[in-house]
Amino acid sequence: MDTHAVPRAAATVDLRWLLSVAAGAVFALLLLLAASPPFPLRPASLFTTTSPRRALPPLFVESSSTLSAPPPTPPPSPPRFAYLISGSAGDAPMMRRCLLALYHPRNSYILHLDAEAPDDDRAGLAAFVAAHPALSAAANVRVIRKANLVTYRGPTMVTTTLHAAAAFLWGRGGGRGADWDWFINLSASDYPLVTQDDLMHVFSKLPRDLNFIDHTSDIGWKAFARAMPMIVDPALYMKTKGELFWIPERRSLPTAFKLFTGSAWMVLSRPFVEYLIWGWDNLPRTVLMYYANFISSPEGYFHTVACNAGEFRNTTVNSDLHFISWDNPPMQHPHYLADADWGPMLASGAPFARKFRRDDSVLDRIDADLLSRRPGMVAPGAWCGAAAAADGDSNSTTTGGAVDPCGVAGGGGEAVRPGPGAERLQRLVASLLSEENFRPRQCKVVEAN
Predict the structure, then answer these.
(1) Average pLDDT, stretch 58-77?
(2) Cβ distance 134 to 148 under 8 Å?
(3) Where are the domains of the chain?
(4) How far from the centroid of its chain's Cα atoms is residue 267's Cα?
């Protein structure tokens, strides 16, 4: 029995030890909890995964001020014109007068005296341009120094016109020439009946692809007298001027294109001039080769190209914008205009007229009554009033003791000051573009041709 007493005592000791340890641990834990501060609660924002909902704006908001209307569309800028003024021996004084009557710093000008005129005339024109403050400052007037030999009624008249057109496109230094919208060919015996402000005002309202070409496909007697005969112009290959000569053989009328004829004086759009010079299809060159042997080719080449080119036939306006007095039936040359033609000339509404004799009294009347231009001076316009005011007339030119208010360097702004000439021209253009005149007279093909 004594052998089992010791183990029971050991078991009792072990149980007491475990109970005391457990009680001590519980007591220590209670002391720790009592000494610690309360556990803080997490703020609700830490558990929020979405932002607080914002108030939606109201569907309709009343403005405190009235909405203003959009600003009006500004008017188009006035167009620019590229003028070719051609002449021959003895025409230099008339070319100077015509230039001053037509001048505006926004435009471009080429003066061509053919090779029959002496070199002194060309040098005199160039010196006149260089000495004029307004013309030289704008640098928009060019005198062709290397003159072309031109035969009346020959194809060299066409090549001279194309030469000037190419020069306007190319410019002086190689590259794109000056900005311009319409090309106008005139002779030394032409003269304006409106100011450049009048012309710019009316043309600023027009589509800039319009081509003013007097034309018809009813060539009548010209088929036998001009289209079938063949001529050669010696000015194409000779240094001295000679008469056209005729080739005995005759040719039939072309079938690759339709012939058109009309006035040699035109107002051509820049897109059409680019087509004539660059010819992205071959029609301009083909027709030019045909008209190289055609009598009076300036009265047919441009018209035939325009009316056979699908891109341009619908841009033609059947008028040359000239007042010309012809015999009935027409002779080779029109009448020289005089004071007796004053009424019909104004009633026509045309911006240009021809032919005039040098220094005829009717030109003085046009200067005084229509252009407000004094002798030897530039025709005034809105541009030179501003230029003169800014310059203080310090660079104004003096003619016969009178100061030219437009003989100053500068100007060329977009302001125009249309006068009665604009009203006359506007009536003419409205008639030409009317429903009964525009489309029905546009490159109309006459089958009897």
Answers:
(1) 58
(2) no
(3) 81-441
(4) 13
58: left (phi over 0), alpha (psi -120 to 50) or beta: beta
pLDDT band at residue 384 under the 50/70/90 scheme: confident
- Residue 48 structure tokens: 């929020």
Q: How far apart are CA 23 and CA 157, in angstroms?
A: 131
3-state SS assignment for residue 101: helix
The token pair at 111 is 């003066």
Q: pLDDT by residue (tens digit) across 257-281?
A: 999 999 999 999 999 999 999 988 9
State both tokens at 87: 């002449």
Picking from 180, 212, 210, 184, the residue whose alpha carbon sits closest to that of residue 105 is 180
In this structure, how many other beta carbons lie within 10 angstroms of the beta carbon of residue 370?
Answer: 22
261 backbone φψ class: left, alpha, beta (φ>0; ψ -120 to 50): beta
- Kindly state the average pLDDT of the residues 187-204: 97
Burial class (CB in 10 A: 0-12, 13-18, 19+), 289: exposed
Identify the H or E element spanning 388: helix 382-391
pLDDT tens string 113-145 = 999 999 999 999 999 999 999 999 999 999 999
Tens digits of per-residue pLDDT, 207-252?
999 999 999 999 888 888 889 999 999 999 998 888 888 998 999 9
Q: What is the dihedral of CA 179, 443, 319, 103, to 10 degrees?
A: 10
Q: E strands along 114-256, which residues? A: 141-143, 182-187, 191-192, 211-212, 215-216, 230-232, 245-247
Q: How far apart are the first and last CA of the chain?
A: 159
Cα 59 to Cα 38: distance, rounded to the nearest angstrom: 50
